[in-house]
Amino acid sequence: MKIGIVGAGKVGIAIASVLKAKGFAVTAIASRRQESLDTAMRYVGEGTRYTLAVRDVVERSDVVGVTVQDREIPAVAREIATHFQDLKGKVFFHTSGAHTAAELKPLDDRGANLGSLHPLQTFPDVESGIAAIPSTFIFIEGDEVAVANLEKIASHLGSEVVRIESSNKVLYHLSAVLVCNLLCALLYEGEQIMNNIGIDLDPFYPIIRTTLGNIEAKGPLASLTGPVVRGDSGTTAAHMAAMKDMPQAAGVYRELSRVALEMAKKRGALSAEQAEVLERVLGGEKREIGK
Ligand SMILES: NC(=O)c1ccc[n+]([C@@H]2O[C@H](COP(=O)([O-])OP(=O)(O)OC[C@H]3O[C@@H](n4cnc5c(N)ncnc54)[C@H](OP(=O)(O)O)[C@@H]3O)[C@@H](O)[C@H]2O)c1
To answer: Which residue CA neighbors atom 15 of ligand 1 most closely?
Structure first.
């Protein structure tokens, strides 16, 4: 199987590097800027063509990964469709978590098979991506031929391959954003408050790591601790009062505490009275803070 990559960015280079190390023929990599191709060359090495012409990649490959930014995927598909009338026998995939293979639609009209392959991982840079891919779940989606090819590729890339229905991709992706990207936003919000009192996140890493370990072992519901699940409405009220001049932090705290309240109820941890007082504390503050 000859594999080509369009888009020498973090994901494209990391995937190409791992596949090449596993013995796959990575025949060509295209990008817009020479600088990006030079970076690709450093990680993927010799025996691969590095080119500014997307056409070169398509000509030399059976399977082409379109690893460009999400917004660029349709334009790349259109560009390829203008150069090739017949793409039967070729497979194209993109690596977006949010979108389905339909983003590559112009290539379907040329007879190509289409899919998507999403490594459920964060790639802040190429190196950490290469290190993380082998322990990553890879979600694949697309037509039957594309999925069969992507399964072979993904099984050499990550730790597990999961096939996902196209219609579920948006829910899958928003879940990933909720538990990964927005976790960063949550920690940032907490860090802002800490900085006001002259401390940083460092002392919190052990408790964060223990919490993540508990979640992995027992799930989020069983791992929840803190004032809400203890029915400690006095502490929750004190927290809300301390945030009277921090509307954004208060909003985040209130909404997540409401989720925690639902969890506490599900665990049977609260009396009806405790739940009612907490509801009042969390609901009442909403009007106060929203004014
Ligand atoms: N980063 C993550 O954490 C992550 C995780 C999973 C999946 N993904 C998905 O993977 C895809 C790529 O993300 P990324 O983070 O690797 O993006 P990125 O680092 O910005 O890389 C995208 C590359 O695509 C190239 N490109 C854009 N338009 C092009 C065109 N018309 N022709 C040729 N090359 C073109 C750019 O090349 P030049 O530099 O040459 O302009 C850029 O280097 C996205 O769909 C993203 O959603 C990302």
So the answer is: 10
What's the sign of the alpha-carbon dihedral 147, 93, 175, 190? positive
Q: How far is the CA of 72 from the centre of ligand 1 (A)?
A: 8
CA of 280 relative to ligand 1 center, distance in Å: 47
Read off the pTM.
0.89
Which atom, in ligand 1's list, is nearest to the CA of 33?
40
Tens digits of per-residue pLDDT, 22-71?
999 999 999 999 999 999 999 999 999 999 999 999 999 999 999 999 99
| Right CATH for 2-166 from 3.40.50.720, 3.40.50.2300, 3.40.50.1260, 1.20.1340.10 | 3.40.50.720
- CA separation, residue 226 to residues 134, 192, 223 (Å): 35, 20, 10
Nearest Cα residue to atom 9 of ligand 1:
96
